[in-house]
Amino acid sequence: MHATNNSTQAYDFKTQDMKVLRKLLPYLSAMRARVILATLFLIAAKLANVAVPVVLKEIVDSLDQTNALLILPLGALFAYGLLRLASSLFNELRDAIFAKVRYHAMHLIALGVFKHLHTLDLSFHLDRRIGGITRDIDRGTQSVSTLLSIFVFNILPSFFEVCLVIGLLWINYDVFFAGISLATVVFYIGLTLAITTWRMKYRYQMNDMQSEANTNAVDSLINYETVKYFNREQFEVDRYQDTMSRWENVATKSFTSMTALNFVQGAVIAIGVTLILIMAAEGVVTQQLSLGDMIMIQALLLQLFLPLGSLGIIYRQIKHNFIDMNNMFNLLDKRPKVCSADDAPDLQVTQANIEFKSVSFSYPGKKPALQAIDFCIKPGQKVAIVGASGSGKSTLAKLLFRFYDVDSGEILIDGQNIKHLNQQSVQKSMGVVPQDTVMFNESIYYNIAYGREGASKAEVKAAAKLAFIDRFIEQLPEGYDTLVGERGLKLSGGEKQRLAIARVLLKNPPILIFDEATSALDSYSEKMVQQALDSLSQQHTTLVIAHRLSTIVDSDHIIVLNEGKIQESGTHQQLLSAQGEYAKLWKLQVDAQNKHNQ
Question: N or C: which end of the chain has fewer CB within 10 A?
Fold first, then answer.
């Protein structure tokens, strides 16, 4: 199944381009003074540039005197040199002034997108691939720079120069000179726009296939170990090869269609220039025009059509960049499904009492994950949630952390409905150790210290000691400076989980959530971490999502979930005595452990 980008294929240039420009303008207005100054330098450069052929005409005419005493036109020659110098100087000043505008806009947009992505809810990040997102951001920010450069360094100068040249031809010569020049420009632009718009479909397909190839490559390399475990190297290469082969075919069509466009552009310019030069030559023959006029007209035409010659490439670049910027700005248009009102109050934690009241929740397009869940976790209590895979255990943790909002019912912390509170304040009050622990590709110290900004080295080491990871770290050659690798791949599952526990302990929130956090620990590590958790249970309200029942036997309350409903609840002993689902799960795990020990 080949990925396609419907938003690109259905791209409406008139509406989408204007939308992109509207979004880009605020970033430029922040530095409007530099934009205005750069524009003034641009105008000055073009005025000097167009004045050069005028001075050249005077030089030629002053030298083309057959019956008069020849005098070296030093004034005109110096003026010619100064105009050339002024044109170059003003162009360089324009570039230097505008550089800050361009790079500042890139900086602000990249920062804005990056910040916005962190505000989007978990469901967005689960549905999108990181490779595709980073590619969109990279293309988009580069497009900002390219688009601004094109407008300031190509489009505006070319437009201004076309107006100046046609105006000079109109004022100084026959109206036909200006008319043919204008008609050539109009035909050139019209045909360029029409043909380029027709062949843009190839660019859409190239973008989609390039994103698909990039996403697949990133996904494959991130899952390097899985690829190796299942001997799927050739499968990954073949998948990448398939996408790149399709990209190659479309890229070839794109290039060959460009050659047709280049021929049409060249033909229009050749016809226009030839007609004008024939008229100019006839004027010289009939002595209505001087040789200087002929040279001035030719020089003006060169200045008119040289920048116009690259308009096709520029137009394609503009359209490509509009598409890329639109994809990036579409990320900014994404709105989080879980968000707080602007005036939402912060959560005030006094006791960390948690209540689930008739909570029901469904993931989009799926059957209910939770149905009418009622339970309470009193301050300092440790409540465990157990059940088969898919029973809704982790969903409870995600709802409490407010990754999602409940469909119905309420989740209260100290009597405050978290749905109506500032989302960030709710999340600040909790520490989560997930089952699948992911680390930054930084040092061990960095990963633990990430739990609380500004934590001292002594506090970081104390958290590591509480998580029983300190001895392991101290035995490493580089100690706390040891790099953990991409996603923590250099560490074992148990080591990663103990680091994650240390990180949460450093955060020291009033509410702890352990989502099967000891599932990857060996028996010794599990006992050590369990001791740490037990010592903290008096100070924190703790929700434990458990697979190993041995880790939650001392819980104040155990809740058994089955297909999103509470099947039974009670203490470990009460549930064993009830001979229900929990007792069956306990017997299965005890039997498995006994077989393992034999």
Answer: N
The ranges of the chain annotated as CATH 3.40.50.300 are 341-429+540-598
- List alpha helices for 30-173, DSSP H: 32-63, 74-117, 122-127, 130-150, 156-172
Q: What mean pLDDT is predicted for residues 347-376?
A: 90
Residue spans of beta strands (DSSP E) within 259-367: 354-362
Map 324-344 to HEC letters.
HHHHHHHHHHCCCCCCCCCCC
CATH of domain 341-429+540-598: 3.40.50.300
Detail the DSSP E strand segments found in 198-342: none
Q: What mean pLDDT do residues 136-156 have? A: 76
The pLDDT mean for the chain works out to 80
Beta bridge partners of 251: none
Residue 5 — very low, low, confident or very high, per pLDDT cuts 50/70/90? very low
With a cut of 90, say whether residue 246 has pLDDT above it.
no
Pairing of strands 541-545, 382-387: parallel
Residues of the chain with CATH 1.20.1560.10: 13-333
Place of tokens 């590590």: 525
3-state SS class at 362 = strand
CA 222 – CA 214 distance, rounded (Å) = 12
On the question of pLDDT at 356 being above 90, the answer is yes
- In Å, what is the CA distance from 507 to each residue of 303, 434, 450, 452, 541? 66, 15, 9, 5, 14
| pLDDT for residue 484 is more than 90 | no
Confidence class for position 412, pLDDT limits 50, 70, 90: very high
What does the DSSP 8-state code read for residue 212?
H
Strands of 408-413's sheet in order across: 368-377, 354-362, 408-413, 416-417
- CA 449 to centroid of chain Cα atoms: 27
Which letter, b or e, does each residue of 412-444 get, where b requires 16 or more Cβ atoms within 10 Å of its Cβ?
ebbebebbebbbebbbebbbbbbbebebeeebb
CATH topology of domain 13-333: ABC transporter transmembrane region fold (1.20.1560)
Whole-angstrom CA distances from 260 to 192, 193, 247, 264, 270 are 11, 13, 21, 6, 15
Please state, in angstroms and as integers, the Cα–Cα distance from residue 392 to each residue in 412, 429, 543, following that order: 19, 23, 14
HSE-CB for 584 with a 13 A CA cutoff: 7
* Three-state DSSP state, 427: helix
Report for 140-144, 344-348, 547-551: range of highest mean pLDDT = 344-348
Neighbours of 219 (CB within 10 A): 16
β 541-545/511-515 pair status = parallel
